[in-house]
Amino acid sequence: MPNLSAIKIAIVDDEPSMITMLQMVLRREGFHQLYGASTCTEALSLVQRVVPDIVLLDIMLPDGSGLELCSKIREYGNPYILFLTAKASDLDILKGFAMGGDDYITKPFNPLEVAARIQARIRRLDPEALASGSAKHPDAGIYRFGRFTINEAEGELTVEGQPVPCPAQVFQLLLHFCRHPGIVFSKTQLYDNVWGINGQGDDSTVMVHIRRIRERIELDPGNPKLLLTVRGLGYKLVKEPEER
Global pTM? Predict the structure, then answer.
């Protein structure tokens, strides 16, 4: 696992007590580079200065919306963005994903759950091939699927030779499918393997991320030929486009 003390976490919330509590819990878990901001203005300045790896982002801030701030944060890097929100409707959740969020947790929440989700995210950053030494091969971690290629080491998705921006959690989900072509994964398995939260998530999170992948890699996202839905079972990524 990467060195936790090197991971930079920004906590954006209009309640100072919430920032303090999360910093205290995360510090006990081994994180040391913890930063706080209470407004959109403070947060944007913080992101520009620090370039965090993870952002815990409240949606309702005194000088604006965390949703709009999320898209601005993406201009300065590609952190893992976890929304902290009292809004739990499907529409609010979908808006959060559409603006570039990777995951969400509704208030009130147990701060240990936030820490667990961050830990799960960081475990996904650890290269699987490193222990076996296969990372020394120049093509290790590069997956080619016809019109798109994903480079694990560089965190880059290219489609028809052009780089395509890809939020962190969308990239991790696509990377998981690329590592296991042709294998059907249920939503519960995807939560376990990609989010690392033991299947404890709702259907909309996976569905939104699947749609965001298709918008990037498919010629016609409404009629996917690469990332397929297997009715009643889940999803699979195929090497060659299938006629449907």
Answer: 0.58
